[in-house]
Automatic annotation (TrEMBL):
Keywords: Acetylation, Actin-binding, Muscle protein
Record has Acetylation as a keyword: yes
Similarity-based family: Belongs to the troponin I family.
Pfam families given in the database record: Troponin (PF00992)
UniProt protein name: Troponin I, fast skeletal muscle
Binding partners and assembly: Binds to actin and tropomyosin.
Statement: the UniProt record of this protein carries the keyword Signal: no
Function noted in UniProt: Troponin I is the inhibitory subunit of troponin, the thin filament regulatory complex which confers calcium-sensitivity to striated muscle actomyosin ATPase activity.
InterPro entries according to UniProt: Troponin, Troponin_I, Troponin_sf
Species this protein is from: Phrynosoma platyrhinos
Amino acid sequence: MEKRKRAITARRQHLKSVMLQIAATELEKESAAKEQEKADYLAEHCPPLHLPGSMQELQLEDLNQKLFDLRGKFKRPPLRRVRMSADAMLRALLGSKHKEKDLRDVGDWRKNIEEKSGMEGRKKMFEGGGGE
């Protein structure tokens, strides 16, 4: 009785493995048929592409276009170095607001701090004198 059970179990396992092998080959055939059908459809409905140049030329043109887009549409002019004094630069930036004597009248910053320190300096600030 035990030998019979073993034989039945072995037979089942053998049948299972045979069925799995048949199913695997059927799946392979089906996928190959789908690929062939897809290739046929594309050949029928989509004509092959005819490019004027080689693929490498197109890629280089594409890269050049991307570079052009990144740089912007205008060519940058070459810049020249300009030597300018600090006063001329301030005049160019600030216009008529800049005067050399205003900068010289500021004086020593330590003197201003000493004037504002202590009660006298605070009293002046409240009265509106501010020491400035």
